[in-house]
Amino acid sequence: MPTSPHLSPTARSTLTRKPGRAETDRAELGAVLDAGLICHLALVSGDSPLCVPTGYGRDGDTLYLHGSTGSGNVRTAARGVDICVTVTILDGIVYARSLNNHSMNYRCAVVHGRSRAVTDDVERDHALRVISEHLTPGSWDYARTPDSKELAGVAVLALDLTETSVKIRGGDPSEQPADADRDDVWAGVIDVRTVLGPPRPATYVPADLPVPPHIAERPSPR
Amino acid sequence: MPTSPHLSPTARSTLTRKPGRAETDRAELGAVLDAGLICHLALVSGDSPLCVPTGYGRDGDTLYLHGSTGSGNVRTAARGVDICVTVTILDGIVYARSLNNHSMNYRCAVVHGRSRAVTDDVERDHALRVISEHLTPGSWDYARTPDSKELAGVAVLALDLTETSVKIRGGDPSEQPADADRDDVWAGVIDVRTVLGPPRPATYVPADLPVPPHIAERPSPR
């Protein structure tokens, strides 16, 4: 388990493009993973790459994922294969004076590694709580926890946060010298935010049942 | 090029999990691709999967991507390899009475296929316009178009929208019969929206330069 505050670059995790956007601080990695809501999981299925969105959770230097044992891709990942998990937060649309300098502001964490099936009951329970608390904080102690039949249908995967890269872009557009005097052309940023709406009760919930505080007061992600 | 309004499932694009969430209408595929801002591109690099966010654009049954020729992954994709492009829009966080039924509302399109490097000048120019107009509509006719040196640094890829799957979840949480009488437990949905902020000019833009309408009046995605 890495104890250095700096990420350890390998060939896979060393950025070859725009290395100035790379972040080497583990705190930065944790911040991106904690700010995202979903990840994209990539694996090789047959000879082809596959990329699907899924939930996740982080506990220290371990990323947890889960999926249905009815999914072939989940069963593949549970065999312990190379996977890539990417969390991307789009922060802005960047308008430059030249199209080539148009860009996005974003925070992105890419994690490479070999998946590990979590089979120990105690770790599985812990991992499911971590995943649940990431997407729906407060739910684990409020809603009904999984029974043995439900648990049997869930595969839990762990991925060490050892081989990772974090890339962040923020601020103004970059410009070319040729465009510096084009004061008639607007440039700037439109910020993109993920905003949570008010809780909407399911049709079958009694009208007078209050929304519990962990849902009613949930802030939008930053 | 597919002319049927229905998607053609193959082994890779046939959903094995929750097939009730599959959409087989090509219009639905187009709607998801048009509503997303970024995609995740997965490919196999060495023996390992890699998944990175990037911009894209769609013209009919062709998806276009671009990237720097300085990127090893872009050069790999430009050789014509199997790739997977996934566009995910998170629409809501679904709180059920049981943790096992917690879920997300989302729209997701997954496209499998072999990438094709776009080398013809006319198609390249068209593809770059399509990609630009997707992320920054109106910019192509407003900002400076790429010069020959800038164009030389950009690789353009095409992917046929032939082998695709679309998966959509919306509405209330699912519940188990065992939880149906738990009228003391709240369940419902928190909607997730992607909201664009007001345009913020770059520091070097004259204070009295108006924001052009294609930027000032840009609506948030739906």
From TrEMBL, chains A, B:
Superkingdom of this protein's organism: Bacteria
Annotated transmembrane regions: none
Compositionally biased tracts (Polar residues): 1-16
Region (Disordered): 1-23, 200-222
PANTHER family linked: 5-NITROIMIDAZOLE ANTIBIOTICS RESISTANCE PROTEIN, NIMA-FAMILY-RELATED PROTEIN-RELATED, FLAVIN-NUCLEOTIDE-BINDING PROTEIN
Listed name of the protein: Pyridoxamine 5'-phosphate oxidase family protein
Source organism: Prauserella halophila
